[in-house]
Amino acid sequence: MEMLGNRTLGITQQQAWDALNDPETLKKCIPGCDKFELTGDNEYSVGLAVKIGPVSAKFNGKVTLSDIQAPDGYKLTFEGQGGVAGFAKGSSGVLLKPSGDGAEGCELDYTVQAQVGGKIAQLGQRLIDGAAKSTADDFFKRFEAEMQSRYGPPPADAPAEGEAAPAEKEGAMAGLMRKIGFGKKDKGEEGGAAEKPAD
User: Of the residues 23, 40, 44, 86, which has the fewest C-beta atoms closer than 10 A?
Assistant: First the structure.
């Protein structure tokens, strides 16, 4: 199985690099992962529950990082045993670079080559590829959510013209104030003024 992809992340290259080298972040973001622990020099012990079609298995294995070039990328190799379900092994390349055109954030390119054996291998290539793509998509959804909770949402709402920024912010703030009840004050004053002559 081979897979490659590209993602735009709303964080800096350094923030992405730090997160991709943090076992706790990876454990949180990899679907089905309940263990991602450093066991040696750039070597991690991993526990992962996987479901592909009718086959569910708990894989235990290791991940080793190599060709580390901070903060640009690394290569990782992995191997795992899933008992009667079979085994998986392979490698992946991760490359980070700043977004083009001076945009905020960074881009992540990745490649994965994997080999499976045992019951899983009998499921058919389409099913395996579909499960791999779904797992990758799920990982990036979780990763982006984790980065947003850590660093805030990407700065997509920055106004195009510098001059318009204060007015826009004021408008948004006034709208928010009205929503939470502060805007009603004016109407209340008007109402009060209208009621005084009636008294």
Answer: 40
Those residues of the chain that have pLDDT short of 70 are 155-199
Residue 32 and residue 136 in contact, taking contact as beta carbons nearer than 8 Å: no
Q: What is the pLDDT of residue 130?
A: 93
Rounded Cα–Cα distance for residues 99 and 111 (Å): 19
Q: Using the 8-state DSSP alphabet, how is residue 99 labeled?
A: P
Q: Which helix (H) or strand (E) holds 65?
A: strand 55-69
Predicted confidence at residue 155, as pLDDT, reads: 60
Any idea what the Cα angle at residue 158 is, between residues 154 and 160, rounded to 5°? 140
Closest CA to 109 of 95, 125, 99: 95
Cβ proximity of 111 and 92 under 8 Å:
yes
pTM over 0.70: yes
